[in-house]
Amino acid sequence: MPENKKPVRPKEDEEREIEYLVCRLCETPCYVFEMDRGHLLEATCMMCGNEDILLFRMTEEEDV
Ligand SMILES: [Zn+2]
């Protein structure tokens, strides 16, 4: 019974990872950050040294 092959479907909604953040201070894309289940834990802007996660925004498509 070779029927152990289930198609693996990634959960796009639950475990979607963003590619980068944008620093609010200098508007620079930031790739140095740590996330856990969609929550931003740590981030560091290499341009201005900003380390306040509140001063980063995610790059999801939103209607502002
Ligand atoms: Zn910055």
Rg, please? Answer: 17 Å
Give the % helix: under 10%
> What small-molecule ligands were found?
zinc ion
What is the 3D form? rod-shaped
Q: Strand content of the residues, in percent?
A: 25-35%
Strand adjacency order, main sheet? 2-1-5
State the assembly state of the protein chains: single chain
Classification by helices and strands = mainly beta
Would you write up a description of this structure?
The chain is mainly beta and 64 residues long. 0% of the residues lie in helices and 27% in strands. It has a domain at 21-57. It is built from no helices and five strands. The strands form two sheets. Strands 2-1-5 form a three-stranded antiparallel beta sheet, with no helix packed on it. Strand 3 and strand 4 form a beta hairpin. It is rod-shaped, with a radius of gyration of 17 Å. It starts with 20 loop residues before the first strand and ends in a 6-residue tail after the last strand. Bound molecules: zinc ion.
In short:
The protein has about 60 residues and is mostly beta strands. It contains no helices and five strands.
Give the arrangement of secondary structure elements.
Layout: E1 21-23, E2 29-30, E3 33-36, E4 39-43, E5 56-58
Antiparallel strand pairs: 1-2, 1-5, 3-4
Zinc ion binds next to loops.
